[in-house]
Amino acid sequence: MPVGYSIYKDRGSILHSGVDPRTKYAGLAALFIFALCSNNPLILGVGVLFLILCMFWARLRWKDVAAFVYLSIWLSFLSVVIWPAYIPQGTVLFHVWSIPITTDGIGFGLAMGMRITIMILAASVLMLTTSPQLFTAGFLAMGMNYRAGMALALTMRFIPLMNSERITILEAQRARGADYTRGNLFMRMVRTAPVLIPLFGRAMMTAQNLTVAMDARGFGVGRKRTSIIRLHLGSLDRVMLVVFLVLVVASIVLRALGIGLLVKGML
To answer: Among 1, 77, 139, 214, which is most exposed with the fewest C-beta within 10 angstroms?
Structure first.
């Protein structure tokens, strides 16, 4: 089935309509800084729990976030497998060949997985709860040039649109008897040519039609551009901004003092 042109899901929650997109940007930046300033899985686990609560607050369904959760679990698993080989400190649990696997190594790997999880889930909550129109309007309200804002909005729509076209082409090819699951990896890549060629053609045609339409409407003639969307920071936004500011300052100070770190000297 072809997918939609945006991953935004309108669930009617306060996080969807009651929070300014600029506040969400600040929250995303604060969570990124929080994740980068700690390598303790217990501390980062609080951030993961907070994002899970945000998903419930936004009334997101499992099918909305399943892909992001699975990606986070997979990357966390890789972190737990790879990072212990580079952290020799801590109590040695066992050896893999001649490499000691320690408690701190496993804990650090888990922390790196949680760091990635926080970044993925935070970005997914932002995209799932912010419509493309508000997403662009937030950046324009922060001073972004409207031409750059239009490019951002088109990118957000163009990528899902091309994914929809890809799925449509795949379904059409399978209806004609094409099988992309047989053979080794190289053979399957070769068989994708009947998909890639019409996909690139469709992308070029869409870009050309869009360019003609924008030129016909005089886009870019004026230096300023009005918008039907009006943004304002409410009391909830101000409270959240203060909380995010406190989180950023506390994370940076604790990192500078070396408090709450599982492995010092490591990012």
So the answer is: 1
DSSP state of 89: -
Q: Which residues pair with 101 in a beta bridge?
A: 94
Token digits of residue 112? 């790196």
How far apart (Å, rounded) are the C-alpha atoms in residues 173 and 162?
Answer: 16
CB atoms within 10 A of CB 124: 21
Residues 8, 10, 12, 16, Cα dihedral to 10°? 20
User: What does DSSP assign to residue 47?
Assistant: H
Would you tell me the crossing angle of helices 103-129 and 41-57 to the nearest 10 degrees? 20
Residue 21: strand, helix, or coil:
helix
Tens of pLDDT along the chain (267 residues) come to: 334 456 888 888 999 989 999 999 999 999 999 999 999 999 999 999 999 999 999 999 999 999 899 999 999 999 999 999 999 888 899 888 888 999 999 999 999 999 999 999 999 999 999 988 888 888 888 888 877 877 777 777 777 777 778 888 888 888 887 777 777 777 777 777 778 888 888 888 888 888 888 888 777 776 677 777 888 899 999 999 999 999 999 999 999 998 888 888 777
- Give CA–CA dist 50/53, Å, rounded: 5
Max intra-chain CA distance, the chain: 69
